Known about the structure:
Strand order of the largest sheet: 3-4-5-6
Helix content: 40-55%
Oligomer: single chain
Number of strands: 6
Number of helices: 7
Radius of gyration: 20 Å
Order of helices and strands: EHHHEHEEEHEHH
Amino acid sequence: MAxxxxxxxxxxxxxxxxxxxxxxxxxxxxxxxxxxQEIETFCDEAISGHDHDLLRICGRWIRLAPLGVACxxxxxxxxxxxxxxxxxxxxxxxxxxxxxYVVRDANGQALVYLYSRESEAEAMQAKVLTADExxxxxxxxxxxxxxxxxxx
Length: 152
């Protein structure tokens, strides 16, 4: 089934909850000049559906594209930068916690949990990382904003 408004393209970054996705879609619909009544109808349908139906519902109304696909209008990086660069501000840090590591952004928001055990035997039995593996991964995840050019 084709989208009702195929001229509206929304890039999803995979990091959003349902209301964030709905917000992205309604913002794009407004920019495209779609009537407010139509946008309200979309919102009602999107909110009333089950979580697993949201992307299907969005796809009936507009075109969805994965992150990295350029939009037909405007700067292809504009929306993505606004969505991601301020949501989890740099610098990120890897903190030791009981049973592993947690990666946090500059505001202290937990982004990634890495569970581990001290010995390799315990890690294999529990099917988790060793403490050293968890530490190395946490440190490398914390470097991502700098590697992506979004560090402060």
